[in-house]
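Thread: zinc ion complex, take 2
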Amino acid sequence: MFGCDKMNRQDWILIACILLAAFGLALCTARYASRREERWAVIEQDGREIGRLSLQEEREFCITCSAGGTHCVRIADGQARVEEADCPDLICVHQGWLSRVGDTAVCLPHRIVVRIEGE
Ligand SMILES: [Zn+2]
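Output below.
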């Protein structure tokens, strides 16, 4: 009886392992599929990339410029925009929401570029 119990337990462990492996595989496939559509807001300052934010995560990213200015980029609903800036022209803010790959908001006074990239 004890031996039989042990066998069963081993069987269950085996089944659990197979299920876990299958689940892990499904998870990997799903993650790979969603990664294919993933887009990022790439933030560049003086031509250097300083941030790469997934558009799938809501968040705010603030940059303090060497000149003393501040820019805040907001990510929401799969879009990105320069929400706050203290540059004189505010052209970057007026660009509004960026969502498609290639959409760009440029801040000339502070040399900041926010660009949407994707695969
Ligand atoms: Zn600006």
